[in-house]
Amino acid sequence: MQQQEDRQFVTALARGLEVLAAFRPGEGALSNQELARRTGLPKSTVSRLSYTLTRLGYLQPESDGGPYRLGLALLALGTAALAGYDARAAAAPLMREFALANNVSVSLALRDGSDMVYLESCRSQARVSVQLFTGSRVPLATTAIGRAYFAGLPPLEQQAVLPLLAERYGAGWPALEARLRQACADYQADGYTASFGEYEPDVMAVGAHLPALLPGQPAMALNASGPAFAFDEAAMRQRVAPALLALRQRIAPIRL
């Protein structure tokens, strides 16, 4: 059922959430005009929404009438959301150890629509590393972590995700689907997926599926990534991928 035909769907609430979702990690404050551009909503509507969200603490204006930053009320919600994923707490110390030992970045993510959202990310002490962190979003179809998540799903769950990807990529989807199918075959053969310069030209990454650790919790995925100048394909496949699979084995048996 489409949203406009769904009596249970609250449009005003959805528009407010669209405004909050328009903010991206690492950005500064956004004006009502920029929020209107990103959401596709009329500026007058955005102005009313930003006022309401400010009154509730979800936005913080830098001056009277904006621009706006995300407010502290969202921090409390985010903390509560992260606390609900037991796998994150169990995996974090092992991930930090892995990042330091292998001189790479390692992340844990779960799916949100056609994206993967990072729940935890640990970087090595190298001067140059992949700059992604908790809350970062990356596409499922072109990243190692997204492909690993997809490849480890049961067939019926894979089929439920495909329409979201087809809608997102439109005419470009058939070529991407072929690469995703190949990633699934690679996963069956090798136990991991890869994305060498496909999402970011200078990033090399391998990924592993992480099954749900507890009933009622979602499946997730891990990746290990590094800059292309420091890690070529051979290094990723021969050294980093086996280490990532060993990390997955250390995390997966944990029951809290």
From TrEMBL:
InterPro entries registered for this protein in UniProt: GAF-like_dom_sf, HTH_MetabolicPath_Reg, Tscrpt_reg_IclR_C, Tscrpt_reg_IclR_N, WH-like_DNA-bd_sf, WH_DNA-bd_sf
Lineage, highest ranks first: Bacteria, Pseudomonadati, Pseudomonadota, Betaproteobacteria, Neisseriales
Organism for this UniProt entry: Chromobacterium paludis
Gene Ontology molecular function terms on file: DNA binding; DNA-binding transcription factor activity
Domain HTH iclR-type, residue spans: 10-72
Protein name: IclR family transcriptional regulator
Superkingdom of source: Bacteria
Pfam family, one: HTH_IclR
Signal sequence coordinates: none
Keywords recorded for this protein, A-Z: DNA-binding, Transcription, Transcription regulation
The keyword DNA-binding is assigned to this record: yes
Segments forming domain IclR-ED: 73-256
GO biological process: negative regulation of DNA-templated transcription
SUPFAM superfamilies given in the database record: GAF domain-like (SSF55781), Winged helix' DNA-binding domain (SSF46785)
